[in-house]
Write a structure and sequence with these properties.
heterodimer, A: mainly beta, six-stranded mixed sheet, B: four-stranded antiparallel sheet
Chain lengths: 113, 115
């Protein structure tokens, strides 16, 4: 079955530390990849997406992610986190030719001021 | 304002009492979907719809029904709720992928408790 794995369930960082959240997906053909963020008490919103072209994609609020096809990975990065980045982060994939979306289990990030 | 709305936002009910959670979007999106979010399990897709009268099962459809009679609405129906359906439910919408619609817009969520 198609799946998405997020390796870090809880991450605690101090402000200004660098962030990398892992995401791996199972093989299933051509993929569209997403990172969504859920701030406390708010809707999920899109951070960034990849569906073709440059494998290094930049999103909102200084986040970026790199698609590495050979590793089936789409890791999220930010060079310097802020307290306001405290949230839950979800990686998601959709496979071309289908309309299903598969989300990872999420990573709770807490940034200490 | 472009948005996805869900009602109710909070619901406590008893086992077996039929309920409907409504979802509406004002962005003329073809694609709509329902998810449930559970601790440690992330979001799991229940059902999705590619357009009016076109729906399909996601990964966890058991115990749920949906209908898509109008483009803007996509209600989730629990005919006989059970305690294992206690969860946080999200509705989302987007344009179809082939029309460039990759970003899903999510509603605020409905927290359902079944006792």
């Amino acid at each position: 079955a198609q799946s998405v794995s997020q390796h870090n369930h809880h991450v605690i960082l101090s402000e200004a530390a660098s962030l990398e959240l892992g995401c791996n997906y199972s093989y299933g053909g051509t993929v569209n990849l997403f990172w969504y963020v859920q701030y406390p008490g708010q809707h999920l919103q899109l951070l960034l997406k990849y569906f073709s072209g440059d494998p290094l994609v930049k999103g909102i609020k200084g986040f970026e992610a790199e698609f590495i096809k050979s590793k089936f990975s789409f890791n999220l990065r930010k060079p310097s986190v802020q307290w306001s980045d405290t949230a839950e982060y979800f990686c998601a994939v959709s496979y071309s030719g289908t309309y299903k979306y598969i989300f990872g289990t999420g990573t709770r990030l807490k940034v200490l001021a | 304002e472009a948005q996805v709305t869900q009602n109710p936002r909070y619901l406590i009910t008893v086992t077996g009492k039929k309920l409907t959670v409504t979802c509406s979007q004002n962005m003329n999106h073809e694609y709509m979907s329902w998810y449930r979010q559970d601790p440690g399990l992330g979001l799991r897709q229940i059902y999705y719809s590619m357009n009016v009268e076109v729906t399909d099962k996601g990964d966890v459809p058991e115990g749920y029904k949906v209908s898509r009679k109008e483009k803007r609405n996509f209600p989730l129906i629990l005919e006989s709720p059970s305690p294992n359906q206690t969860s946080l439910y999200f509705c989302a919408s987007s344009f179809l992928p082939e029309r460039g619609g990759h970003e899903q817009y999510f509603g605020p969520g409905t927290r359902l408790t079944v006792t």
